[in-house]
């Protein structure tokens, strides 16, 4: 017997159908159409309007942004409000200043706590008998990360 594997969004749709007041099971076409809202799009493409509407209504549980060629604050101010409260986020940029500006703006707008700027730099070592030293050809920077947790702000 072969088991069918469901995506998380179609599994949620099936549960909500079972709990519906009408008691009527919806068609498989509706489940397929609803699961398309959670479908990933190619990198750099805009998400479909149905997916954006779903995110605005329900929020999403975490956010990872890695778009070093784009304006970091422009992306953050559009996407962080779509996060559920208490959801973690991480933003990568190759330069420190755009993330410092994001951190400052998030603090002023009181939309995040636990903000932390870090540089994830890794030093590789060459280990040989009787001699251990860092690799001689290493990049000086791997970029910077801004991380935090989304909160609601009281007016």
UniProtKB/TrEMBL annotation:
Entry similarity comment: Belongs to the TRM6/GCD10 family.
One annotated Gene Ontology cellular component of this protein: tRNA (m1A) methyltransferase complex
InterPro entries: SAM-dependent_MTases_sf, TRM6
Protein name: tRNA (adenine(58)-N(1))-methyltransferase non-catalytic subunit TRM6
Annotated organism of origin: Sesamum latifolium
Keywords: Nucleus, tRNA processing
Cell wall biogenesis/degradation as UniProt keyword: no
Gene Ontology annotations of biological process type: tRNA methylation
Keyword Nucleus included in the entry's annotation: yes
Cell location: Nucleus
């Amino acid at each position: 017997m072969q088991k069918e594997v469901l995506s998380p969004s179609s599994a949620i749709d099936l549960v909500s159908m079972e709990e519906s007041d009408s008691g009527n099971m919806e068609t498989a076409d509706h489940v397929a159409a609803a699961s398309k809202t959670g479908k990933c799009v190619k990198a750099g493409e805009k998400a479909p309007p149905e997916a954006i509407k779903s995110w605005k209504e329900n929020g999403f549980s975490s956010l990872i942004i890695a778009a070093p060629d784009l304006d970091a604050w422009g992306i953050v101010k559009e996407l962080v409000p779509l996060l559920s409260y208490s959801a973690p986020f991480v933003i990568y940029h190759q330069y420190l200043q755009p993330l410092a500006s994001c951190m400052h703006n998030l603090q002023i707008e009181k939309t995040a706590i636990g903000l932390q700027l870090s540089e994830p730099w890794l030093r590789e070592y060459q280990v040989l008998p009787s001699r251990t030293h860092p690799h001689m050809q290493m990049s000086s920077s791997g970029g910077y990360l801004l991380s935090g947790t989304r909160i609601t702000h009281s007016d």
